[in-house]
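Supplementary notes (optional reading)

For those who missed the lab, this is the record we used. Protein: Helix-turn-helix transcriptional regulator. Length: 95 residues.
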Amino acid sequence: MWLALAKTFPNGKIHDHYSTTQQLGKALRAARKQLGLTQSQLALAAGVGLRFIVDLEAGKPTLRLENSLRVIEALGGEISLNGLPAPTGGDDHGA
């Protein structure tokens, strides 16, 4: 499974693929810097703690997915999953 982070910049949309938490963290750090945000400013915008941003950018693999998604949203990005079967409908919680 590959994780794709789509980020819209003034010059258009950029799609990159990441297969490790370190690659994703590096990309999020680059996006934050391109937007001119400090780690503290991004933490405030995403509603997470500064330590979370530091760990996320360092590629720590045990972070909460919900908070990671909040940071990506605060940076103007989105997540898409490639290579997975299409949903079959219905709720498969626990199935």
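If you only remember one thing from this example: The chain has one domain: 2-82.
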